[in-house]
Design a protein that fits this description.
single chain; disordered N terminus
Length: 469
């Protein structure tokens, strides 16, 4: 299936958009991809790696940060080039399929990361980097399909609904893992009190490791509707010609970028605050594991609650986006993230904002400590603000970018989201390794959000009806 490529905004009244089923199928890409971020990079596999594969949590956080940085650098360097080639060739789905395959292969192989085996660490980190490259590149080309699916004044709602749907997918995958697959090594029971399905051994953390193959299967299954029902752009040039033209257009875009001040400033702001957000998501579970001694069930339950907040945040943010504009939604989200992060740094196992509280009771109920409950509330604020921030960012890019170079601009969007993405994890890794303090590493993220917000305020946002032709 193909559709006519986007035209100038003045032709919107005569443009035909695909049926509802095609739009819903596109939305399910977010549902399909989100478990990678929920299960692998945030709430299950990353904390498992830091706590049980690496020699100690601080070393694990540092190694994970270095691997995240390496993958981010690769994504940054290649995204604009691939986006430019895709604009010239026309098609999006072949790129999504190819990079989706990298996600499937890399995440599936994470199953072999058994605890207490230092020899597997380099291979495991390589698999993580490959899967990260795959999911991020696939997302670039999926985002580039947005302008052909709905009118400009509904882009915000589409983006927000996609993020909200993704959060729901992440929640359900997390419930599946915690409720039926991952068991507490001490009790041998899952969160719901069951023995793990398929005989997954709690001692070898098979329930944590199964998140890799589960992520791969989930992605393959739930991207099928998009491939079958959502129209693609029509093919324009063969690959060799697309390569030449795409690179030529990319050079022209980069030369003209300084003249497009709002677009350039936004890309710079996105580069900085996205680095902070990705780092916060990547290390939130690891930080909780080190601060409170949480294991998979506690971290996963925390993830479910935070993701539920994210569902409502992304959905409401999408509606607010169409009403007041994505720039204001981004600014509000950054302020909430700043406040939540500052508060998290003042929460410890036995204190909240410098006030001493009773520590958690060993073997007690879930989140029995006051500090744990405070961290849970702050996690909800982060989840509720992170979704609107990301959804509104891609909406703002669509308003600022030339529509005939949308994949290329989403490549630049990914570039600015990744070109310094190694800086946040790298700094966290270095500071954590040098100080042996997780709190010191996380404190760096305040700077990223403050600078990103200051730059965002300099962006001149165009109304939806005046989106660039």
């Amino acid at each position: 299936m193909t559709v006519t490529a986007p035209q100038a905004s003045g032709a919107d009244t005569s443009r035909k958009y695909p049926p509802r089923a095609a739009v819903v199928s596109w939305i399910f890409f977010d549902w399909a991809a989100q478990p990678y971020f929920t299960l692998i990079t945030t709430f299950v596999f990353a904390p498992y790696f830091a706590g049980f594969v690496a020699p100690d949590p601080a070393t694990g956080q540092a190694l994970w940060g270095f691997a995240t940085a390496a993958a981010g650098l690769m994504i940054a360097l290649m995204s604009p080039i691939l986006g430019a080639i895709a604009d010239a060739s026309g098609r999006r789905k072949p790129w999504i399929a190819g990079f989706g395959l990298l996600l499937v292969i890399g995440s599936s192989l994470m199953w072999f990361g058994k605890p207490g085996d230092p020899s597997i660490i380099p291979t495991l980190l390589l698999c993580y980097a490959i899967a990260s490259v795959g999911v991020e590149f696939a997302t670039v080309f999926n985002n580039a399909m947005m302008p052909t699916l709905v009118p400009p004044d509904k882009i915000g709602r589409l983006s927000g609904t996609g993020w909200a749907t993704g959060y729901v997918g992440g929640i359900l995958s997390l419930i599946l893992v915690l409720g039926f697959l991952a068991a507490n090594p001490q009790t041998g029971r899952t969160l719901f009190g069951f023995m793990p399905l398929f005989g997954l051994d709690p001692v070898t953390h098979a329930g944590d490791r199964i998140t890799g193959p589960l992520t791969a299967l989930w992605f393959m299954l739930f991207t099928l509707p998009m491939f079958l029902l959502t129209p693609d752009y029509p093919a324009k040039l063969p690959m060799r010609a697309a390569l030449r033209e795409g690179l030529s257009e990319l050079k022209q875009t980069l030369r003209e970028l300084p003249k497009q001040k709002s677009l350039a400033t936004f890309l710079l702001a996105n580069m900085i605050y996205t680095d902070g957000l990705v780092s916060l998501f990547a290390f939130g579970g690891i930080y909780a594991a080190g601060t409170f001694g949480w294991h998979t069930i506690q971290i996963g339950t925390f993830g479910i609650v935070a993701a539920i907040a994210g569902v409502f945040g992304a959905w409401l943010g999408g509606k607010l986006d169409d009403r007041v504009g994505p720039k204001r939604v981004i600014a509000i989200s950054l302020l909430v993230l700043l406040l939540a992060l500052a508060a998290i740094l003042l929460v410890d196992k036995d204190s909240i904002l410098f006030v001493k509280v009773a520590p958690p009771v060993p073997g007690g109920p879930l989140f029995s400590g006051a500090a744990e409950r405070a961290y849970l509330i702050l996690g909800c604020l982060i989840g509720g603000a992170g979704g609107p921030l990301q959804a509104a960012s891609r909406t703002l890019l669509i308003r600022l970018a030339p529509q005939d170079r949308i994949a290329q601009c989403f490549g630049l969007f990914a570039l600015t989201g990744k070109v310094t993405s190694f800086v946040g994890p790298l700094l966290i890794g270095v500071v954590t390794a040098v100080t042996a303090s997780q709190k010191a590493g996380m404190a760096l993220l305040v700077v990223f959000f403050v600078v990103g917000l200051v730059l965002l305020l300099r962006v001149r946002e165009l109304p939806a009806r005046h989106a660039r032709a």
